[in-house]
Amino acid sequence: xxxxxxxxxxxxxxxxxxxxxxxxxxVGQLVYPSGGALDRLYxxxxxxxxxxxxxxxxxxxHIQLRGPVRQVVTHTVQGETLLAVxxxxxxxxxxxxxxxxxxxxxxxxxxxxxxGISLSPHLPGELAxxxxxxxxxxxxxxxxxxxxxxxxxxxxxxxxLVFRDPSPWRWADFTAHPRVLTVGDRTGVKMIDTQGPxxxxxxxFRGGAExxxxxxxxxxxxxxLGECGPESLQPTLHLICxxxxxxxxxxxxxxxxxxxxxxxxxxxxxxxxxxxxLRPGCPRPLLLGGQGGQLQLLHITGEGTSTPRLAGPPQSLxxxxxxxxxxxxxxxxxQQRLQERLQAPTIGLATAISPSASTPVLSLFQxxxxxxxxxxxxxxxxxTSDPGPxxxxxxxxxxxxxxxxxxxxxxxxxxxxxxxPVWAVPTFSYRRLLxxxxxxxxxxxxxxxxxxxxxxxxxxxxxxxGSLPTxxxxxxxxxxxxxxxxERLEAAWEGPAAAWWEQRLGRGSGPGxxxxxxxxxxxxxxxxxxxxxxxxxxxxxxPHHSPERTSPVxxxxxxxxxxxxxxxQELWARGVPSERQQTLRDYMAKLPLxxxxxxxxxxxxSQTSSIQATSFKQQALRDCTAKLSLQRDTPGSATVxxxxxxxxxxTPSRQLVPVLCGSQPxxxxxRMGF
Length: 674
Hints:
Residues 558-619 form the TAF1C C-terminal domain. Residues 84-226 form the TAF1C beta-propeller domain. By secondary structure, this protein is an alpha+beta fold. The protein has 13 helices and 32 strands. A hairpin with a 6-residue loop joins β27 (346-354) and β28 (361-368). The model is unreliable at 386-393, 429-443, 518-556, 558-569, 593-617 and 627-664 (pLDDT under 50).
């Protein structure tokens, strides 16, 4: 939304400045918002002089509102003057007496946000209210006691008329018929009958080939120009403004504009005012105002059955920024403040013609977004058919009173203390402008020092901040009671895992208590891990293979060992029968575990007790003894062949025992059962 507002801010479409006629033709009131939030509605009484210089009468009165004022509309119907005000989520209606005193009638709340409000030129107290949801409501307020009103929804369509456009902006105005309204969005304008069935209507303007629109052209403002009166234009004429062109469309001939003119304004034309003719039979002036302060004056003719056309070329009026040269030269900082104040966006436009016997004088009032009201006096020409070479240079005059008023305004502006620069986080991103988020108040010296240094543009050093806060380490997850793998990995990461093995092996064993046996997964994995884990490498000539590089595939199995022998046996021999300890020690001295086997082969000896005294193992020991006597004279008998290594990896445990015993020395016949 911020990015779209930088491109086009349509909140003040229609203008927030209005001229209320007073008790005499020379006296009127300017109605405009002011204040930092534009939430105060001011009523300033002004007297017009024959020379065109307005005189301020007294101090302005004001009404405090609960929201910013976005649009101010006035209309006089049947001698009754009404004042309508639109805010973001509220619309209010006042009735102004001939003495200029406003009396409130009613306030309407718009849940989805109001985008436009229009007063009926036919019936007093009737308004058209537009919402961001695509709904158009007809609001009728009547005075008296009690105050009564009626709100009726006459149209609703969340989608745009012609093609898809994401803008929620909607606009409505009245037509020559009291019960027919125009509904507009960024793509076109449609006429709807309030008494007909819902959904019926006729397109009045389409953004496309019928109107010879350019690529990307969008509707910015629609306004009904056929006011009732003897000096009005055709009662079926409508004004449609886009960012490129101006169109005049007749209700009787929809889709085909009667007049098209490229205005060439550098900013969006969101303000338009149709002025009364200077003399009967003269063209009617049309004032077009851009959001950037640019003004153009057009003269439209075409009464009765004639086609509307432009009477002479349009005139470009000087903007507020062009009057910068009339101010005295200031220092650079004050000059920049003055220039920024004069270049504030225009959010309101009002006109009044001063009574004069010689040349009519147009009093032009502009309201800026900063809350300043500027006055400009313009001498109008009655003959616009042959404007001459200086047609594009209107006659603008400066009186001594104007110069003195500008000097007083400049003095008051410079006396105001400039707002202190408030540091904010950068809000620009790729094709987006994010909203400002207030920083949370964090106690401490570091955030405050950072903000102060960035606001002043100074270099921040370490000594200015003191000790930096240290981040607390995240809490470690506690392993479960059965998570043995995590315990083993933590012990291996912290250091030698020998202590963990001793604690684990002696955790469940004790006098009179048998250790808990785990279920075997496969014979190959349990036997292989039991033969390669619990080894004492202090006496063996093979390379050292620490138990930290063990595989987490098999779970450790506490052996069955008498308590009297646990303190005298070596670590790898716990739970191994004494008759087999020398056999395993001699074999592991010859087996090249460090170079030929992967890391998974060095699993801890967890299930050594699974090797029992069976008959097939007795035969295996005899075969090992016979093979050892044949291989003692062989040069390569110190290592195990690769074929035996592969067979040890892939064969079951019954084929693994002869391979493991292939390099054992000849020894005595074991006792019975072993």
